[in-house]
From TrEMBL:
Gene source species: Limosilactobacillus pontis
PANTHER family: 2,5-DIKETO-D-GLUCONIC ACID REDUCTASE (PTHR43827), NADP-DEPENDENT OXIDOREDUCTASE DOMAIN-CONTAINING PROTEIN (PTHR43827:SF3)
UniProt keyword NADP present: yes
Domain NADP-dependent oxidoreductase intervals: 18-261
Source species taxonomy: Bacteria, Bacillati, Bacillota, Bacilli, Lactobacillales
Pfam families referenced in this protein's UniProt entry, alphabetically: Aldo_ket_red (PF00248)
Record's keyword terms, sorted: NADP, Oxidoreductase
InterPro entries found in the cross-reference section: AKR (IPR020471), Aldo/ket_reductase_CS (IPR018170), NAD(P)_OxRdtase_dom_sf (IPR036812), NADP_OxRdtase_dom (IPR023210)
SUPFAM superfamilies: NAD(P)-linked oxidoreductase (SSF51430)
Record-given protein name: Aldo/keto reductase
């Protein structure tokens, strides 16, 4: 597994396992299977309602393989309803670490740029980082305006920005800004909810390379320097998603895939997007695990 180096020097695997919308009772087996098949990056969040299952799965996977916690790269995120109060963020992280059965996470992210809350939340993350409860800190779904505002108030620059990125949506302004600031980009929904797996351009390239359409999409992203976190509960698919380092796409193939851009978020993005309401009345702010 190839790695990228974050702006604090920490090495981060370039392919990992996402667990969004995976039920709690399925998560433990899924994560254990991933660890047993050499996945090291696991990405979860309090919002997903399955951190406990991730912790159980990691424990089982480590026991089965003889690996140690330090062999893994674990990411979780600050729930929107916990944002905006320093002590609430710190207390929430302590509870999340307990659920994950660990003393630290490798990466802790603000899940969304909640209006009037994220700068205060970031101060808590800076101290969490200084105290060693997180080896790296970053954000999710921050655009250029959010990042500019955060950098105006921050003492520590975010190390990662996790955004929706796949052949259908490129967010070029955010990507360029992060690259200029040496903030590592990480793609959630790197397969675009499967909407391009039947696309003739993707399939033509896949056939030429002897790879699957999913492998071609993921390769297109990692060649641009992204970290990717595809989700699968099936071991064969997990192995396939990680097997993308033995081929490359040429410039023409990269451009053909880039031309598929529609700059449209996934159909469920609006439900979870940043709320402009500082009172956070939306269900996704109020209820962890509510999809």
């Amino acid at each position: 597994m190839e790695k990228v180096k974050l702006n604090n020097g920490l090495a981060m695997p370039q392919v990992g396992l996402g667990v969004w919308k995976v039920p709690l009772d399925v998560t433990a087996k899924m994560v254990a299977t991933a660890v047993e098949n050499d996945y090291t990056l696991i990405d979860t969040a309090k919002q997903y309602g399955n951190e406990q299952g991730v912790g159980q799965g990691i424990a089982a996977g480590l026991a089965a393989t003889g690996k140690s916690r330090d062999d893994l790269f674990l990411t979780t995120k600050i729930f929107n309803g916990d944002q905006g109060d320093y002590d609430r963020v710190r207390n929430a992280v302590n509870q999340q670490l307990a659920a994950l059965q660990t003393d630290y996470v490798d990466l802790l992210l603000l899940h969304w740029p909640v209006f009037n809350r994220y700068n205060t939340s970031w101060k808590a993350l800076e101290d969490i980082y200084r105290d060693g409860q997180a080896k790296a800190i970053g954000v999710c779904n921050f655009n250029v305006d959010h990042l500019t505002n955060l950098l105006d108030h921050a003492e520590i620059k975010p190390m990662v920005n996790q955004i929706e990125f796949n052949p259908r949506i490129h967010q070029p302004d955010t990507v360029a800004f992060c690259q200029g600031q040496h903030i590592q980009l990480e793609a959630w929904s790197p397969l675009g909810n499967g909407q391009l797996l039947d696309n003739p351009v993707i399939n033509k390239i896949a056939k030429a390379k002897g790879k699957s359409p999913a492998q071609v999409e993921l390769r297109w992203e990692i060649q641009q320097g992204f970290v990717v976190i595809p989700k699968s509960t099936h071991v064969a698919r997990m192995k396939e998603n990680a097997d993308i380092f033995d081929f490359s796409l040429d410039a023409d193939e990269m451009e053909e895939i880039a031309m598929l851009d529609e700059e449209k978020h996934s159909i469920w993005y609006q439900k979870f997007r940043w709320s402009g309401n500082p009172d956070g009345v939306d269900d996704y702010i109020a209820k962890p695990g509510a999809y």
